[in-house]
Structure formats: structure tokens, C-alpha cells
Amino acid sequence: MNRSTARHDAIAAVISWNAEDHRLAHDAERAEDLFGRDVFSERVMRQRLPKEVFRAVQRTMRRGEPLDPSIADTVANAMKDWALENGATHYSHWFQPLTGTTAEKHDAFIAPDGQGGAIVEFSGEQLVQGEPDASSFPSGGVRATFEARGYTAWDATSPVFLLRGANTVTLCIPTAFVSWKGDSLDYKTPLLRSIDALSHQALRILRIFGAAGDVVRVTPTVGPEQEYFLIDRNFFFARPDLLTCDRSLFGAKPAKDQQLEDHYFGAIPARILAFMAEAERELYALGVPVRTRHNEVSPGQFEIAPIFEHCNVAADHQMVLMEALTRIAPRYGLHCIMHEKPFAGVNGSGKHNNWSMSTDTGVNLLDPRDDTHTNMQFLVFLCAVIRAVDRHADLLRASVAGAGNDHRLGANEAPPAIVSIYLGEMLTDIVNQLEQGSSTGTKKGGRMDLGARSLPQIPRHSGDRNRTSPFAFTGNKFEFRAVGASQSIAWPNTVLNTIVAESLDELATELEEAVGQDPTPAKLQGAVRAALKRIVKEHRRVLFDGDGYTEEWRKEAEARGLPHARETVEALAALKTKKAADLFKRYSVLTRTELEARAAIFLERYIKQVTIEANVMISMARRQILPAALRHQRELGEAVAACDAAGVESPAARNELEVFVQLVERLQRTIEALGTRVDRHGSDLRRHAEQVRDEVRPAMADLREVVDELERRVADDLWPLPTYREMLFVK
Ligand code: ADP
Ligand code: MG
Predict the structure, then answer these.
(1) Distance CA 321, CA 279 (A)
(2) Is 473 in the pocket of ligand 1 (CB under 6 A)?
(3) Ligand 1 near 405 CB (within 6 A)
(4) How far apart (Å, rounded) are the C-alpha atoms in residues 388 and 198?
(5) What is the average pLDDT score of the chain?
């Protein structure tokens, strides 16, 4: 009998993979010529639009000014011509519903002319507004299905691009997605509103410092680093859990995983590198400025990072990037896994969200080296962030909550679920001086600031690094590391922008009142010192430079009164507070209804995800594991019987059989136990989520334990699933 399995065939296929077969046809094209080729960029617009029209669009793109509707037809026409010249046949309003993915519905540019022929058409109206049937997208009750209409509205601040597929080129128009009444049904709308709020408040601060000058707008900048796994596609299809949940629900730990730390920054395997190169080229064409690639900590894990961009564009590009990796991997026989914890026991995948604020004149407001006018101004922005993060740590935590991230946050290789800020030795020292109200100079021998003598000068390089902090200052930006790998960055950034806007608002009000109509430097200095001193005093508890993975920190954080939501259900409670509702309402980011809808949708998603996982587990355990175990048991039984028949003592075989039979009994019991728990329902959403957390998840863990033990015992040629060793190391 040939007992070679699909697993063994997959391994053979991987071994025969040859980089030469995959050389790109367009290899010769230079990356700089490729960059932005598929984007309806400012450069293209400048060439194709009348001057006044171009200027009007540019004002919208750069300054977020409302789009003049009278120019829409002209823009649409130029866009259409450009798209058709590039082979496009369809256009699509591309949006980000609350499913967490992107949505697109394609419409052809051509329409019948009524005389048996067809004409090409694309009007300003079609560009500016679309009307997808929205009834199947989550609305959390905002939009009852009887009024299923929602509409999409062009976001002119994010560039239009061409999506190329086999036989298709589609013009993609980034849009916001709202209900007929105007409630946001997506991630983009509140993000745009939060950017406006932040800009408005930051400008007030700049004006106080007399630094507003030509600045019209302040935008958050974001550079998200994306971690992901790649496994051979054959393994992927042989694992129902990966196929359905993007996560392995079973799998015994291999003898070797990441303990030798030989994968991180190691030589990139040939096939992976070939894939990366093609993905990068497609992303270049789409104007996504990807820059960095490397192996990550776990075997089979990699990272790709772009250069930072304006928050809204970065968020759109991040979705494009995830989509591109997923789409291109199969061309190399690979499957790209974006899940936060696809493999237990090895590193999970996150998305480091590098965040700062920049003026439209190019000044990074969190860069002490940049032309931030005076160090005083830098410290104002820095302290505003500190207060925001401390006051709304619960919201930040909630913004990254999800079934996938539960396996990651607080586990030992990921940022802890307690939100704290790492400043580094030097800034901590400066902040301490602020609190004491005296400044004795900086730790590293810098000198006193000229502009504001009472505040210390911040030297150029603070090279400190801390890998365990969820929110670290890294020289000229903050890095929020708790974002999950599969998550859209739009929501965490919406929260971040809003909470910082609030903090800046309070500071601006306080300073405006203190300095009055004639702000002398002395007055301003005194007011800033007083304000920052109070902020540091009140919020220093959120500052922590130590090892965030330790038990001592957990205790210490508790003593400091920092919130610590260990998992999703607890974390999402932050969205139900009055504090959250007031915040989002005050800055017109989310209405109460919109916030409530999100709280409901996130809980619902959690319940659905875990329930699907539980059902996949049950099905795999019954239809793959149990049959394999019974076959193995029969073989053991036959071995014992053969010994008996031959009159030979076989204590080892007999013992193995006994132990194994017990294990199979346990398997059946745990399958049944999980089955009963999955079928139970809580009376309302929150109860149901709690029941999933408290009953279903532990039962899943029990079942996994038994199955993983079986994997260690069942004959290799009987085991139906690709193993961790195979999935992580065969590439
Ligand atoms: P690492 O954190 O791995 O040392 P870098 O510090 O070079 O790497 O940057 C990581 C990411 O942070 C990159 O995507 C980079 O573009 C982004 N970044 C750098 N400066 C800023 C900024 N001012 N605002 C937002 N993101 C930034
Ligand atoms: Mg980084």
C-alpha cells in the first residue's frame, strides 16, 4: 500500500521549485520608471487638466478643502481617458466597510447608445458618488435593511489607481461609505474626520508659538510595518483550519522553531525573495513606497515596510499592500498569512504603526531636531501625546482588540496588553525636569535652549531602543506596536488622532487664555512650563521604560492604576463608556449611533470568528483526527495481537495501546464538550461574547491539547495534516 500523503507530495513540489522559472518578464524596467505608473497622480493631473481645475483638485488633495462639484465632469473625463489609454474597461468605487477588508463593485465604462452600438461614458456624478447595494455589509444597526441603500463618496485626498488582474484593468476610486442618512459605515470616514480635528487643534498650538506662518494644515503621518507569514500553498490547502480561519487550530510544537534566533534578518530564501520582488514592483506601480524587507523572528515570517505617508493615504496603501501580498503569493506557490497568530508557540504578526504629525510645509512636529521653532513647542506636542495616551489608554487598547490579537497581546513576544509609553532615558530625564519645574541641563551634556532658556535643549540623537513597549518614542515619531497584522490601520489611527486632538485642544485653550492678546515670550514660557508640569505630574504613570513583558510590570502597572484589558471582550467595553462617546462626539469623529454600531460590530465579529474556529476544530477532529487515531489504534492493536498469537510478551506495545486508547477516549469527550458549548447562546451580544470567551475558548484549548498529543504519537504516514515543521521550514 502506498501511504504517501498530500503532505509528502507538497514537500516534493517545493523541492523542485526553481527560481529561474519565475524570472519576471519586465525585470529590465527600472523601479523609478515604474513608480506610480498606475496612479492618477498629481503629475498626470497637471498634464491633463486645465490649470484652474488642477489647482482646485490640488487644494482638496493637499488641504482637505471641499471639492468644487462644478469641476467633477472635467476631472472625470480626464481620468477616464487616462484609464482607457492604460487598458481599463471598468471603474470601481473602492471602499472599506466595517468587515475590515476592502469592497469593490465594478462598472463598465461603456453603455449602449440606443442604436445598437455602445458609447464610452464616465461622468462627474459617477466619479463623485456611487450607490452600492449596502444591505450585506455590517452596519451594527445603523442602517436597517429596508433602507439598504448606502452611498460611496469620492475621497479626493487619496489617489485613484489602476488595479490590474489577468484580463482586467480596473480604475479604483477611493471612497467613503455612508448610509443614506449620512452615518459612516466604514473606516475611512471617521479617519478623515479625525485628521481634520487633529489639524485644527495642532494649528492653534502653532499659532500660539507664532509658528503657523504659511501652514494651512497639519496631517498625521504614518508608516506601518507589516509582518506576515508565507507557507507553501499545498500545505495551506491541506489544512482546513488555515483555509477557513487563516490560523492553525492544531499543531504540535516542532523540536526547533525560533529558539536559535537564526531566522531573524537571515538570508531570505530564494523563492520568498522572488515573491517579494514581484510584490514590490506591483506596489511601486501603485505608488506604494515600499522600502524595507527582511526575515522576521519566527521561521516562515517576514516583514515589509513602506516609507511613511499622510495618514489617510497610508491607510489606503496599507489595504492595497495586504491585498497585493495575498494576491501575488500564489504565483510563487505560496500562501500569505496575515493572521496575528497563525502558529502557536512562535512569534505572532503585528503591524508597527509609526505615527507623527507634520505641517504641510514639511515640519515634523515630533522631531526635536526639525525646525519645530523652539524645543518648547516640541515638548508641548510630546506632552499632549503623553496625556492623550494615558487618559485614553483603554480606547487605544480597544482599537486593536480582536480574536486574532488576543493570542498575541500580552503573550511573551508581543507588546503587552497594558498601554504604556517608552520615552527613552534622555526624554524621561527632560520630562522629570519639567515636573520639578527646574531644568539643570540634559543628561547627555546638551546645553540649555536659546529660545526658551528655562527648558533643556534636546540633543540630536536619542538612540535608545525598547522592543517591549506598546507605544514607544523612537526619535521623531511614536511607534504603536499593538496593532494586529490583519487589521486595517484606519481605526487605531482614528483613535490616536482624536485623543491627541483633544489633548491639544485643552492645551491650546489653556495657553491662549494665559497669554491673552499680547503673547510675550516670558508670558508664553511661564504658561507652557505650568501646563507641562501639570501634565507630567498627572500622567507620568503611563511612562515606563523597563521590560514590558515581565510579571513585575504587570503588578506595577496595576498599582499605578493603568487599565489592563486582557482580551477582546473586556477591551471593547471601553467603546461603551460615556468618556468615549463624549470624545468622539466633541470632535465630530463619530456620533453616538456610529460608535455604538462599531462596538456591536466588533463584538459580533469576535463571536463569529471564534465560533467559526470552534466549528472547524470540531469538524477536523471528527473527520480527520479521530479516523487517523482509530487507524493508528487498530495498528497498535494488531501489533499486540500478533505478539500474543506468537506467544511473545509485548509490554511496551501493550502499554502504548492502553495509553493511546485513553487518549482517543479523551478526544471524543473533548469534541463533544466543545460541541455543546458552541451551541449555547448568550441572551445578548455581550453575554454571548462572554460565553464564547469563558466556555468556548477553554474547550478549544482542551481539544487542541489532546490533538497535539495525538500528533506526537500517531504514525507519521497516518497523520492527515501538514505539521508545523513542514509548514514553517519547507520553503
Ligand atoms: P525601525 O523602526 O525598524 O528602526 P525606521 O525608524 O526607519 O525603522 O522606520 C520605521 C517606519 O517608520 C518606516 O515606515 C518609516 O517611514 C516610518 N517613519 C519614519 N518617520 C516617520 C514619521 N515622521 N511619521 C510616521 N512614520 C515615520
Ligand atoms: Mg520600527
Answers:
(1) 9
(2) no
(3) no
(4) 12
(5) 89
